[in-house]
Design a protein that fits this description.
By secondary structure, the protein is α/β, with parallel strands linked by helices. 35% of the residues lie in helices and 20% in strands. It folds into two domains: 176 residues, 3-Layer(aba) Sandwich (D-Maltodextrin-Binding Protein, domain 2), CATH 3.40.190; 106 residues, D-Maltodextrin-Binding Protein, domain 2 (3-Layer(aba) Sandwich), CATH 3.40.190. The chain has a five-stranded mixed sheet with strand order 10-9-11-8-12.
């Protein structure tokens, strides 16, 4: 992808360019001065810093991925250079906000102050209650849900879906008693978020990356694991016939880029860019490039008016 780069001959020119872009993209009168600064600072710096974690097909680790291309395009749309800044699940929010946090169920505790390293997190981050208390999410870029998965040869059978998601979740949880289960702390796969301790499952918190959960399941590290939809779709495609979906353990969820609270101008600029991609069809093409099977599970997502 070709990126646009501004040449800033002086601070005066940079500030002038920032003001021009602000006036074109977002009516300044509609935003408080503090909110306008977030976009102005990115424009003045001339760089959009994308905090990413190699995960599923959002950030592949090979220089591409759905969210990588989305943020490269956003940087070009703003007229700045794209910069990828790798992080991990335990550090990402601190790298964005300057506040190191620890999730405690649906609550969150601030446990330290750290340097800010990026402007936006984008790597298939799920919108969950505790994260909403410390970051500001943009509009949805992907639908998701947390599923219970097993090896294909497991005696645990997939549930028979009903007309009630709540009933399907209860059915899924009912198979967990006495079974070993992998989850991942500080992510949407934290078993505590879904009351897994009440199921009788023998829970283990996985120490590796999210991308390694499916391989750990196949290596018999546990009988079952939690996976969210994007990672499950990648696993089903990568290991056909070796892994199966038992059923859902969560309600439907959204994934979206995360911005600092108060960075309203930058977040709304992204929402405007995303809206343009949806109108011109580029967003649909980008999703299907990396997740061709998403329409099989979420047929309304890319339908007109569904995204």
């Amino acid at each position: 992808m070709t990126l646009l780069q501004n040449s800033h001959g002086s601070r005066t020119v940079a500030v002038w360019l920032s003001a021009v872009v602000l006036s074109v993209l977002l009516p300044s009168a509609a935003l408080p001065a503090a909110a306008r600064d977030s976009l102005a600072l990115v424009q003045e710096r001339g760089v959009l810093r994308h905090l990413g974690i190699p995960y599923a097909n959002f950030v592949t680790g090979a220089g591409d991925g759905m969210d990588v291309e989305l943020m490269q395009g956003f940087a070009a749309w703003l007229g700045v250079v794209y910069e990828y800044v790798e992080t991990d699940w335990s550090r990402a929010i601190g790298d964005l906000t300057g506040k190191q946090v620890r999730a405690e169920g649906n609550e969150v505790a601030v446990i330290g102050v750290v340097p800010i390293k990026g402007d936006v997190i984008a790597n298939g981050m799920t919108v969950i209650p505790w994260r909403q208390k410390v970051v500001a999410f943009a509009d949805r870029t992907f639908p998701t849900q947390v599923w219970l998965m097993s090896r294909a040869d497991s005696p645990v059978a997939p549930i028979k879906p009903s007309s009630s998601l709540a009933q399907d979740i209860r059915q899924t949880k009912s198979v967990l008693n006495g079974k070993s289960l992998l989850g991942k702390l500080d992510t949407c796969l934290d078993p505590a978020l879904y009351d897994m301790e009440d199921t009788g499952a023998k829970i283990s918190l996985f120490a590796g990356s999210l991308n390694e959960l499916a391989p750990a399941l196949l290596a018999n590290e546990a009988e079952l694991t939690l996976l969210d939809v994007p990672d499950a779709l990648v696993a089903l495609q990568k290991w056909p016939g070796e892994i199966k979906v038992i059923g859902p353990v969560s309600e439907l969820q959204d994934m979206a880029p995360a911005f600092r609270p108060g960075d309203d101008a930058l977040r709304e600029a992204f929402n405007s860019y995303l809206a343009e991609l949806k109108v011109n069809g580029r967003f649909r093409s980008l999703v299907l490039e990396y997740y061709p099977f998403v329409v099989d599970y979420f047929p309304d997502f890319l339908a007109p008016g569904g995204d």
